[in-house]
Design brief:
Blueprint (H helix, E strand, L loop, with lengths): L14 H17 L36 H20 L2 H7 L11 H14 L13 H13 L13 E2 L2 E3 L2 E7 L8 E6 L5 E5 L22 E7 L2 E8 L19 E2 L1 E8 L4 E6 L7 E2 L15 H10 L38 H6 L17 E2 L2 H6 L1 H6 L1 E3 L12 E2 L2 H11 L10 H19 L34 H11 L10 E2 L19 E9 L9 E9 L12 E11 L15 H5 L3 E5 L2 E4 L2 E7 L17 E9 L3 E12 L6 E3 L4 E7 L3
Parallel strand pairs: 10-12
Antiparallel strand pairs: 1-6, 2-3, 3-4, 4-5, 6-7, 7-9, 8-11, 9-10, 13-14, 13-15, 16-17, 17-22, 18-21, 18-23, 19-20, 20-21, 23-24, 23-25
Length: 684
């Protein structure tokens, strides 16, 4: 079977090994029962049963080093995602065929019902993001179903910004030096007044080195673009970096040079707290920002060319754990390196240096509240990091110094950024052996960062911008406020390393996927105008006495995305003879919740099959929303309509159950009860 463009092609070394590993593990996962057999294994993908590999020991990094441990891990990630892709493939499932099929099969009346229901309604019976099993294409379709249309990755359009570099309180850029013969490229240093202070041939240190890990510490002229579409914003980051992590007077580092090393995109809904991460391929040495980058999944289901381009562009291994840094209940990592005016300037955001050098408030302040919703979307990503996403927590500073304004976490926001912000080493009061090794690795990473920081930036130097967060004063460095005390830092650090107790007020960082109709979780949308009607068979429709028409209206308003498309309806149906008494049905007469969820669904025809003692029609979209087409934008109620075959003298009992396709490790979130309705086909 074809494995698509996301994976190494036949001419690439190791392709056969990856194919073999992926195929074998997919067969093993399906034979064990797939996702339902995951119980007790924290790294097991709930959709397929494939097992994600454990991350190699060491600090979290923006890019993997070229060593054997990480090379093998990338291979294992490829095999894991290929396992998922194969396990999700209908062709592979049929080939392996581990399902025990009943010898009896469906009853004739069930087969007839299923065939007619599928024939009459098939255009609107489909699950979003089910057009492709390719890891990247499926991931993009999932993101589009949640966030709406995804813009092209563009680091030049709109209001895109270049990330500045500051050295000893001056802004630095790489330009031809007109004062030397031949005008060689050198580093120009300008003060806040715009005057040239000096030229240098090299840059060894800077005032605000990067904390990303395995990225050039003192890089310059990377580009950032922020695109806002209603409640959703997209960040496109084109980072310049080199394998040796240094910066040289080479054309690559010039602002006018469009070449860069790492492509990243983040989508975030500021109402629902949903976030998604895309990374460019890690086996690609160079990108060019004069080109716009098509989003994963292309621009639509029908964008076949764009979908193929994206499969070859984005990283199908999800090897970089973006959520470990972008974990502050928003998409931003705001620290001095990114050049925001409100962080890392002694005179504050209104000071001369901030006005001259910074990006201002390009990344705006957002509400910081540990109780805000926050959820990572994308089954490829969440299946890779299911354990760390489940374990991540928010922290309150037991000393009251640092979390009155900020949400700190047990991830990199707490372990690395807080240490750098306070100029304190990570500390755990009574570490386990594993914690001790992790803490030592993080200390080494921070030591490397500090080695690339100028003495000018330290509190003992003229700049006095490091540490860049102070108790009570926060990021206001103009006052001579004291640094956090050693005793207070140790209490906070112990919490940040998930080694504390009740004093840390731990809460899960990530919040659950909300089912439709759950106002306490932010989604109050429910179906309205629900009705059932007996109609005569239209001309051309045969094999039934009557037509049973179900109608309702629904607006998928969660997150205020007009083209949101992650909610579908299951319709469970039972039929019995009409009671002679004509009494109304009891609640127990209707299909139960498990039957409506399709816990033991067996397909008969397309999306119609049996579930327990009920017949089930799955994945109903709104009327007119044909399979694998983009939803039309709407902020109002959409009409839903399903026609079912009915026989005279029968009572039809229906449970209508909305569900959200979560595209994470919770898979699907169902409404609490759904709607119950019935109709008696008296055919009078």
């Amino acid at each position: 079977m074809s494995i698509g463009l996301s994976w190494p092609q036949p001419e690439r070394t190791g392709t056969d090994t990856i194919r073999r590993l992926g195929s074998r593990t997919a067969a093993e996962a399906l034979s064990a029962g797939g996702g339902p057999a995951c119980y007790g294994n924290g790294r097991c993908d709930r959709a397929t049963g494939c097992i994600a590999p454990a991350r190699p020991f060491g600090p979290l990094l923006e890019a993997y080093p070229q060593d054997e441990a990480h090379r093998l891990h990338v291979r294992d990630l490829q095999a894991f995602q290929l396992c998922r892709q194969m396990a999700l493939s209908e062709a592979f499932r049929k080939k392996t065929d581990f399902t025990l099929v009943s010898a009896d099969g469906p009853a004739p009346e069930q087969s007839s019902f299923a065939a007619l229901a599928q024939r009459w309604n098939g255009d609107v019976l489909w699950a979003p993001a089910s057009a492709s099993n390719d890891i990247i294409t499926r991931f993009g379709d999932e993101a589009r179903a949640v966030f709406g249309p995804i813009p092209d990755g563009d680091c030049t359009g709109g209001d895109a910004k270049s990330i500045p570099l500051e050295v000893e309180g001056n802004i630095v850029d790489l330009k031809p030096n007109p004062g030397k013969v031949g005008k060689p490229l050198e580093f120009e240093h300008r003060g806040a007044d715009g005057k040239i202070v000096k030229w240098t041939e090299s840059i060894a240190q800077c005032d605000k080195p990067s904390l990303a890990g395995n990225a050039t510490y003192c890089g310059m002229n990377s580009r950032l673009n922020r695109i806002v579409k209603g409640s959703v914003e997209w960040l496109v980051f084109c980072r310049k970096s080199t394998p040796h992590l240094g910066i040289e007077p080479e054309p690559y580092w010039q602002k006018s040079n469009p070449k860069f090393a790492r492509l990243g995109m983040i989508g975030f809904n500021n109402l629902s707290g949903e976030i998604v991460f895309f990374d460019g391929r890690k086996d690609r040495a160079e990108f060019d920002w004069t080109q716009a980058f098509v989003p994963p999944g292309g621009r639509s289901y029908a964008d076949h060319e764009g979908r193929a381009q994206a499969e070859a562009l984005y990283d199908p291994t999800f090897q970089i754990e973006c959520s470990a840094c972008h974990d502050n209940k928003n998409p931003y990592v705001v620290n001095p390196h990114i050049g925001q005016a409100r962080v890392g300037y002694r005179a504050g955001a209104q000071g001369r240096e901030a006005s001259a050098f910074s990006l201002g408030d390009y990344l705006p302040k957002t509400p910081r509240n540990e109780q805000r919703p926050f959820r990572v979307v994308g089954s490829g990503y969440t299946s890779t990091y299911v354990t760390s996403l489940r374990q991540a927590k928010t922290v309150r500073d037991p000393t009251g110094n640092c979390t009155e304004c900020h949400t700190l976490t047990t991830q990199i926001t707490g372990r690395r950024f807080a240490s750098d912000a306070t100029a304190r080493e990570p500390f755990i009061a009574d570490p386990s052996w594993a914690q001790l090794l992790e803490m030592r690795a993080e200390r080494l990473e921070l030591t490397s960062v500090n080695a690339h920081r100028t003495d000018w930036a330290l509190r003992s130097g003229p700049g006095k911008i490091h540490p860049w967060m102070l108790p009570a004063e926060g990021n206001d460095l103009s006052a001579a406020a004291p640094e956090i005390s050693s005793a207070d830092w140790q209490k906070l650090s112990n919490c940040l390393w998930d080694a504390g107790g009740t004093e840390c007020y731990y809460r899960p960082l990530y919040t659950p996927c909300p089912p439709p109709g759950s106002p306490l979780q932010g989604d109050g949308s429910e179906p309205v105008n629900v009705s059932v009607a007996e109609l005569p068979l239209p001309a051309g429709k045969i094999d039934a006495d009557r037509l049973l028409r179900l109608r309702w209206h629904y607006n998928n308003s969660y997150g205020n995305v007009p083209q949101r498309d992650d909610v579908r309806f299951n319709i469970a149906v039972k039929t019995v003879a009409i009671p002679s008494s004509g009494r109304a049905p009891l609640a127990s007469d209707y299909p139960d919740l498990d039957e409506a969820k399709g816990e033991n669904f067996t397909a008969i025809d397309g999306e119609v099959g049996t579930s327990g003692s009920a017949l089930l029609i799955r994945n109903t979209s709104y009327f007119g929303h044909a399979k694998f087409t983009e939803p039309t934008p709407s902020t109002g109620l959409r009409q839903f309509r399903i026609d079912l075959p009915a026989q005279c003298g029968r009572r039809y009992l229906v449970r209508l159950l909305p569900k959200r396709l979560c595209f994470d490790q919770s898979d699907t979130a169902y409404a609490e009860k759904g709607q119950l309705l019935y109709a008696d086909m008296r055919c009078d």
